[in-house]
Amino acid sequence: MTATKKPTPTPANKPPPKAELGDVLLARGPAHFDDLGSRASTLLLLAASPEAYAFYRWDNIAINVWASQPTGEAVKVLAQLTERSLSECPSGLSSIHWLEQGVALPTAEARQGLGEIAKRYEKHLICVGVMLQGSGFWASATRSALSGIVLLAPRTYSLRFYGEVSELSAFVARAQGERAHKATDAALLRRVIEKAVADATRVDAG
CA angle, corner 69, sides to 66 and 70, nearest 5? Predict the structure, then answer.
């Protein structure tokens, strides 16, 4: 009788480079932004869905680019990535959300999911910065909706909305220093954000 060969286990700290999560492809490999210098290898594309979203992380800073209406399924992916990121970032996580002009308000399911993330990880979030690529009624309605989600949960971190990436970068860098005692270069962070957004555009283009 021939013995059955047991499969070789994959080490817990070495997940496959790609894994399916619903219809979303996750990748651990870093985006190749060589012009950012030695820390470029820490910019990771964690999950992306064309014309919907692209979620990145640079060190302990999450950069979430929304190209279309946040849905419940997308927020479930974000929740899983938040948990994973916090396990790898013991000092806490700063979260940046970039919303393109005209993106519809989150669905009811997405709002509920975002509220659960805000409540569950409240003590581990350093700050939340939201970049609104637009103005007028759309920006006002989006700001009001997102503020309402967070107000339903206890909050020790700062939530701010911006229309200029330089101001957003300065806010996050300052919070990193004050709450996580991590020195973060605001100018470099701005370049990282801009590169992530440019890369997300390529994801949307397929």
Answer: 70
Count of Cβ atoms closer than 10 Å to residue 192 Cβ: 25
Alpha-carbon distance 186 to 118, whole Å?
Answer: 25
Q: Would you kindly state where each structural domain of the chain is located, as residue ranges?
A: 23-205
- Contact residues for 173 (Cβ-Cβ < 8 A; gap 6+): 184, 185, 186, 189
SS3 3: coil
pTM for the full predicted model: 0.80
CA 177 to chain centre: 19
The tens digit of pLDDT for each residue in 18-70 reads 333 333 333 444 444 444 444 444 678 889 999 999 999 988 999 999 999 99
CATH of domain 23-205: 3.30.750.24
Q: Give the pairing type, strands 18-21 and 24-27.
A: antiparallel
- The count of C-alpha atoms lying within 13 angstroms of the C-alpha of 192, restricted to the half-sphere facing its C-beta, is 32
